[in-house]
Design brief:
The structure is a single chain. By secondary structure, the protein is α/β, with parallel strands linked by helices. It has 16 helices and 14 strands. The strands form 3 sheets. The chain has a 7-stranded mixed sheet with strand order 2-10-9-8-5-3-4, with helices on both faces. It has a 5-stranded mixed sheet with strand order 1-13-14-12-11, with helices on both faces. Helix 11 packs across helix 12 and helix 12 runs parallel beside helix 14. The termini are far apart. The N terminus and C terminus are likely disordered.
C-alpha cells in the first residue's frame, strides 16, 4: 500500500514525523470516513452480476431516496460530483436551451462553466460570494420570461467555497408563484447528510449528490435523484450522453443491476453508512450539524474575526468559512497549522484564494473533534501572528457543554 502523505508540498512532506500524531482532516470534503465504513469497503469484491449482488444492490437502491427525502429513484454513478453535474444537464437539456444559474461561489462557477461548454445558453446572475440565491431576482427573471424559454434553473444549495446555504424552499416558491415550467436542478453535494434536503417538498427535479462529504464516504460516487418531470424531459433532451444516460441505468437497476461495472466496494461502504444513519437517526445527524455549526461560529465571534457569509439566515452548518484580516494570508495560516499541529483546513477557492480559511465539520464528526479543530485554529492564529482575541475555544466549549438536543433545538430556532 502506498504511503499516505497529508502535506501540501514536498518541503512539508519531508518535515513529517511520527511526533505529529494522527492527522486532523478538517477540510469540507473529502471528510473523515468512519472505521466501520472503511472496513465495509475493504470486504472482498463480488460478482456484480451474481444473485448476491442483485439482492444487495436492489435493497440499497430502495433505501437511497430516503437521504433525499423523496420517493423518486436515485441513480448512482461511479464518478464524482462533477460527473453528476454533467448528468443533470445532459439528461434534461438540448443544445441552445436557456439555463438560469446564480453565482454564489466557486462551485456555482464550475457548474456554469460546464453548462457553457455543452452549448447551453446560460443566464448567470452575478453575486458577491457572501450571499445565496436571491429569490426576488429569480422571480423577476421568471416574470420577464413570457415565452417560457428558461428550460432549467440550476442552483447550489450549500456553497462550500463560501459557507453560504441558499433557501431552496424560496426558489421553489418563486417558480410556483410564476407558474413557470422550468426544471429545478440543485447541487446538494455538501448538504446531503449534513443539512436538511427535501427534494419532494421543494419540488427538486434533479438533486446532484456526491459521496465524499456528509455521506461519510471517500470520493467515488456521484448521485442524481430524479423526479418524474425530469425523467419525462430526458426523453426529448438531445445533448450527447452515453455513460451518464439515466435510462439504461434505471432499466438495469430495476433488476438490481448496472449497465456498467459499478463501484462495488463503494456501494458496500454506502450501505454501511446508511446503517449508521439509521442507528443514529437522520434527524439527530442533522441536529448535530446545527449544533456544531453554531459552536464554530461562537468561536469565530469570540476571536473577533469575520465570517464570509453576510446573512445569518444563510450560515452553513456543514462548514465555517472565516475571512482573514486585511494584510494576512489564509494560505500562510493553513501552512502554519498543518506544520505545527498536523491539521488540514480548507483553502480559499477562486475569488477567495488566500483570503479565507475553511473549517469542515460535516460527516463523521463529534464534539471532541470540533474542540480539537478549533484549538488548532486558535493556536495557529497566535503562532502565525494574526490579530485576534483569545477565547474562541472556550466560547465553543461553553456551548458544547450543554445537552445536545436542547442546544441544537435552540440553535435551529
Amino acid at each position: 500500500m502506498p504511503e499516505i502523505q497529508s502535506r501540501d508540498s514536498k518541503e512539508s512532506m519531508s518535515a513529517m514525523s511520527i511526533d505529529h500524531g494522527r492527522h486532523f482532516l478538517q477540510v469540507p470534503g473529502p471528510t473523515n470516513v468512519p472505521e466501520r465504513v472503511m472496513r465495509a469497503i475493504a470486504a472482498p469484491t463480488i460478482d456484480h452480476r451474481s444473485p448476491t449482488f442483485k439482492q444487495f444492490a436492489g435493497s440499497l437502491l430502495e433505501r437511497l431516496p430516503r437521504a433525499f427525502r423523496t420517493d423518486s429513484p436515485v441513480v448512482v454513478f461511479a464518478g464524482s460530483g462533477t460527473g453528476a453535474w454533467e448528468a443533470s444537464l445532459v439528461n434534461t437539456c438540448s443544445p441552445g436551451d436557456r439555463v438560469l444559474m446564480f453565482e454564489t461561489g466557486h462551485f456555482s462557477m464550475l457548474w456554469h462553466d460546464l453548462a457553457r461548454r455543452f452549448g447551453l445558453d446560460v443566464d448567470y446572475v452575478s453575486g458577491n460570494w457572501r450571499s445565496g440565491v436571491d429569490a426576488e431576482i429569480l422571480a423577476d427573471k421568471l416574470a420577464a420570461d413570457s415565452d417560457r424559454q428558461i428550460k432549467a434553473v440550476a442552483v447550489v444549495h450549500n456553497e462550500t467555497s463560501t459557507g453560504v446555504t441558499s433557501d431552496i424552499g424560496a426558489v421553489r416558491r418563486a417558480l410556483d408563484d410564476a407558474d413557470h415550467p422550468a426544471l429545478l436542478l440543485v447541487d446538494v453535494i455538501s448538504s446531503l447528510g449534513s443539512i436538511d434536503v427535501r427534494c419532494a417538498d421543494w419540488g427538486i427535479d434533479v438533486a446532484v449528490g456526491g459521496s465524499q462529504k456528509g455521506l461519510m464516504l471517500p470520493p467515488g460516487l456521484g448521485l442524481n435523484a430524479i423526479s418524474e418531470k425530469a425523467r419525462t424531459a430526458s426523453k426529448t433532451a438531445t445533448l450527447p450522453r452515453a455513460f451518464w444516460d439515466w435510462q439504461g441505468i434505471l432499466e438495469a437497476n430495476g433488476d438490481g443491476l448496472f449497465p456498467f461495472t459499478p463501484a462495488i466496494n463503494m456501494l458496500f461502504g454506502l450501505k454501511e453508512a446508511f446503517d449508521m444513519f439509521d442507528e443514529m437517526g437522520w434527524d439527530n445527524v442533522l441536529a448535530r450539524h446545527v449544533r456544531h455549526g453554531a459552536a464554530a461560529r461562537e468561536a469565530v465571534a469570540a476571536w473577533g474575526l469575520e465570517l464570509q457569509p453576510a446573512n445569518p439566515s444563510e450560515y452553513s452548518d456543514a462548514l465555517t468559512v472565516v475571512r482573514m484580516p486585511e494584510g494576512h494570508s489564509g494560505d500562510a495560516l493553513r501552512g502554519v497549522i498543518l506544520d505545527a499541529y498536523e491539521m488540514s483546513l480548507g483553502a480559499g477557492l477562486g475569488k477567495l484564494a488566500d483570503r479565507v480559511f475553511r473549517i469542515g465539520h460535516m460527516g463523521a464528526f463529534n464534539d471532541l473533534m470540533l474542540a480539537g479543530s478549533l484549538a488548532g485554529v486558535e493556536m495557529g492564529l497566535a503562532r502565525a501572528r494574526v490579530p485576534f482575541r483569545k477565547g474562541g475555544v472556550q466560547a465553543a466549549l461553553n456551548m458544547l457543554a450543554e445537552p445536545p438536543t436542547e442546544k441544537a433545538r435552540a440553535a435551529a430556532e
